Each structure stands twice: as structure tokens, then as C-alpha cells.
Amino acid sequence: MSAAVETPAERTVEPTERRPARLAELFLLILALAAGITAFAMVGRSVTGELPGDFWPVSLLLTGIGVAAHVVLRLRAPWADQVILPAVVLLNGLGLAMILRLELADTKGAAAWSQMMYTALGAGIAILLVWFLRDHRWIRRLTYTAMLVGLGLVVLPLLPVIGREINGARIWVNIAGFSLQPAEFAKIAFAIFFAGYLVTNRDTLALAGKKVLGLQLPRIRDLGPIIIVWAASLAVLVFERDLGTSLLFFGLFVAMLYLATERFSWVLIGLVLFGAGALVAASVFPHVGARMDVWLHPFDNELYNAVGGSFQIVQGTFALAAGGLFGTGWGEGYPYLVPYAFSDFIYSSLGEELGLTGLLAILLTYLLIVQRGLRTAIAVRDGFGKLLAGGLAFVMALQLFVVVGGITRIIPLTGLTMPFMAQGGSSLLANWIVIALLLRISDNARRPSALPMRGMVAQGGAMHDPIVVGAHDGATPGTGVPVRRPAADAPSRGSTPSHPTEAISRHPDPPTGGEHL
């Protein structure tokens, strides 16, 4: 008896997806590390004539962070976006270089090595999050827990024991000698809550209600969540005296409402509510009105010389003007003349020594991260992932606008800092978590679908005997009589059935997606 020989026509060719080698990310990562390390060296050579004392430890640690994150992504999230990590490492490196430059100029409070430690801690948390969080949809289970955590973090600075007021804003807590800004983490918790809430209620918010002057207005009872967030954001503005955090929270919710419903009426309602609340607060509360006066009349002599007046914003404007188009060069300017040049006003410090050209390159790097986040939101298949990725990308863009707009006097000055560049442990830790979530969502968005090929049974085989419509055991095709048929009798992958068949499952599987975890 001769063995059956499989003919070429009977062979089945199954497509396979090769895991990406992530060479593009590795190449960009090398360029980002080279830019940051070169900036360290140039700062030291310009200020002291030699390499800084912490040059090698900082360089090796930053390189180790980049390589470790690259390896973890290659192993656990191989389809994740390949541009986000190098962009973040570039911003981190340039920010460390500027903080080091201010530290070498004996600027009080500047500490490059402390910033490096927080960078390592934040990157470590991000790596662990990518490693252990295999599916971002699991976070949806924490929707209302995230709401409670976010509200608790917002309230923490108001507590009498641990709350601290610094420079007129009560947005800090001090625990065991460590200062923390809870609002940085609250934005992540609120983004998770908003994504989980809106993916469930977006149809009601988008379709219910009447049209007035072409705008789809929501029903009164559907306004409850936005009214609560509006009141909470104004409470932050009034009691914690922080315009930036207030604007960040409210802007995040309005933006995610628009992403979920695609109704411009929500954006209009949000802008009107926040504008009205800010005007009332400016007229009633003195500290809010003082911020408005500094914004509108910074060059007034009385305001310039007043304690907490416009001195900082004016010096920052002079620093940007001194930088010109190409800047003075690393270590050649006077950024230390601006108060808090290493944190709140690091943008003006970079503008003085790198010029408008350098600032545009930095802003484009931020916009690249935001664009990749929004692209991930478009590509991911589930509704929760779309809203979460879009919200996280938008909150970074809004924070960048608030910081740069305050320094350049587009809007009143706030207490927020530039992500990844300004000195501050809370901001670094929170934004590294944001990046980890974006990378995880982008991996799930780009990962090839596990759906079977046409005519094939999914991996694991049929769980139940199918019901076959059509011919069976010599019956006339097309009778339309359902016949129960064992799965083992179904045609093999490579064979062609002699008559038309259609398998119908007796117990249809529940739909899969963001709404069913």
C-alpha cells in the first residue's frame, strides 16, 4: 500500500505575522540619547571648561533606561508605536541638560541628579506597567474606583496636616518629607473614569435632547456629570488657587465628551461654563484677580515691583527675546535671572540658549507624541481604548498649551510644568505612566487580529456541534432543512466540500470588544 501524496493544490498556505524587530525605534533612540548626552557635555564644557562631575553616571543611567524600555517593548509589546519612546527620551535628556546648566550656575533649587533619579523611577514604573498590563481593557473595571481616587487626590492638598501652600498655590502635599503634587496623578484617574463613563453613556449624550440654533443640546438630567466636573474645577481654582489644574481637568472632560459624542454643543457649553466661572472668580476672589492683572498689565511699574507681581513673567519675556532665532548656545545665556527657571519657566530658559529654532524643534517633538497618541485612538478597536488614548493625548497637548501659553502671555500664568523637561518628581512619574498606557494601547491597536481565515475553524476547534443547512449524507442540496452534524465530520481546511454548507452555532459567542471584557 502506497502512502498518500499531498498534491500542491491541496496544500494550505497560512499567512504568518512576523514580530517587528523595532529597528526604527532603536535607531531613533540612539539619536535621542546622542542629543541628550551631547547637551550634557556642551553644558559642562561651556560653564566649567570640563565634563560635569555627574556626566558619566547620568549618561549611563539615561542610556540604560532607553535600552531597558526598548527591550521590554520588544518582548511584551512588539507592535507598540516606535516613535513615542525616543521622543520622550529626547525631551528628558534636553530637560536634564538645562537643569544641569542652572545647577552649575548655583541656581537655588536646581538639582539635575534628583531629576535623574525621578526619571529612573518613572521609567521603571512605566516598564513594569507595560510588562504586567497585557490588555488595557482590564482598566475599565476600575472606572468608578478611578473617580474616587481622582477626587481624593484633588482634596488631599486641602487637608490641614499634609497640605502645603507654595507660592500662593495650595497644590502640594508633604508625606514623610517628600513633596508631591497629587493633581498630576488625578488627571490619569479622571481620564480612566471619563473613558469608562462615556463609553457607556455616549449614545444618550449624543442623541437625546433638542436642537437649538443647529446645536444638539443635551437633556437637563444628562448635564449632571459636566456640572459636577465644572463645580470641581472651579473649587480647585478657588480653594487651591491653581488656574492651570482647574483648566486641565475641565478641558480633559470636555474634550473627551466631544470625542465620545462628536457634538460641538458640548464644547460650546463647556467653554461658556468655564469662562463664566473664571470671570466670576476673578471678580470675587483677590488671588484670581491678581493673576488676571499680571496677565493683562505685566509692564506696569507697580505690578513689576510688587511681591508676587509680574517680575517673573517679564524676565521670562526678556529671556525669550535674548535668545533670538538660534539662541546664545548651551551655557552662554543668563537663564538663572528668571525665578524658577528650572521648573515653571524652563521653557524661557531653553528659548534663551536654544533660540526659536530649538523651541520649535521641542514643540514639534511634543506634537509628535500627541499625534501618535491620537493616531492610536483612531486605530484601536474598542471604544474604551479610543477614549482613553484620545484623552491622554489631549491632556498632554492641553498641558503643553497651558504652560507655553502662560509664559508667552497668551493666557494667564499657571503653576503647571512642561512634561518630561521641567524639574519635578510628580510630573515625571505621572507622565511616564501616561506614556506606558499609550504604548500598551498602541500595541493592542497595531497587533494583528487573531480571527481565523475564511473557511477555517478558530484555534481550539468548534466548542459545539454545528447545525448545517443544506445537503447532508447524500440529501438533495438546497433543501434548507437544518441538520445537526458533528464537528469532526466537517470538511478539512484543505479540502473542497462537494455541496454547499453553512455552519450555524447553537450558542453564539458574546460579542467581543471594549464594552465586554
Automatic annotation (TrEMBL):
Record key words, sorted: Cell shape, Membrane, Transmembrane, Transmembrane helix
Transmembrane intervals: 26-43, 55-75, 82-100, 112-132, 144-163, 175-199, 220-237, 243-260, 267-288, 354-374, 386-408, 420-439
Biased composition (Basic and acidic residues): 504-517
Keyword Transport: no
UniProt keyword Membrane, yes or no: yes
InterPro entries in UniProt: FtsW/RodA
A Pfam family it matches: FTSW_RODA_SPOVE
Region (Disordered): 473-517
Subcellular location: Membrane
Record's bilayer topology term: Multi-pass membrane protein
Protein name per the record: FtsW/RodA/SpoVE family cell cycle protein
